[in-house]
Amino acid sequence: MTFLLKRLAAITLLSACAIFARAEADGAWLNKVPAKEHDKANPYRNQAEAQIAGGRIFAEHCAQCHGKQAQGDKKHPSLHSDRVQQQATEGDLHWLLVNGYMSRGMPSWSKLGNPQIWQVITYIKSLH
Ligand code: HEC
To answer: What's the rounded mean pLDDT across residues 99-128?
Structure first.
């Protein structure tokens, strides 16, 4: 009997963990960004051409998860949020795109190249 109860407890705990693992994005990645990266400036900041180029990159690589308008869905955060638009600096976003956050399902985009990463950041920051 105690054996059964223990198993039941273990199963309950496991499913609780599974639910937790699928919880909404909570911005924990922001705490991982080193100060030096946080303050990095976007060389394309507010530049119209970079915004257009970034929009194309977004449609090709990001929209499949974050949605065509970056509106997000149940499993993928919206990029219109205060966290992405206000709280995160462009340097923070650059760090996230270079490193990814694979344990939470966000891939690294370092293969795109540095100019392209800054362009997609210009696009994201133009959404607010
Ligand atoms: C395979 C699906 C997938 C793709 C493709 C993807 N992302 Fe993500 N992204 C995620 C997930 C899942 C998270 C949430 C991570 C977490 O829990 O913090 C995320 C988080 C983010 C965040 C932080 C959002 C927040 O609220 O903290 C930004 C910004 C972001 N992604 C931008 C991009 C950009 C730009 C691209 C394209 C270059 C991209 N993502 C492609 C899955 C994806």
So the answer is: 97
Cβ atoms of 108 and 61 closer than 8 Å: no
Cα gap 125→119, rounded to integer Å: 10
The pTM of the full predicted model, rounded to 2 decimals, is: 0.87
Question: What are the structural domains, with CATH classification, of the chain?
Answer: 27-125 (1.10.760.10)
Ligand 1, residue 93: give the atom nearest the CA.
Answer: 29
Ligand 1: lining residues by beta carbon, under 6 Å: 25, 27, 29, 61-62, 64-66, 76-77, 79, 81, 83-84, 93, 96-97, 101, 104-107, 109, 120, 124
Output the CA 15–ligand 1 centroid distance in Å. Answer: 25
User: In this predicted structure, what is the pLDDT of residue 12?
Assistant: 66
Q: DSSP character for 81?
A: S
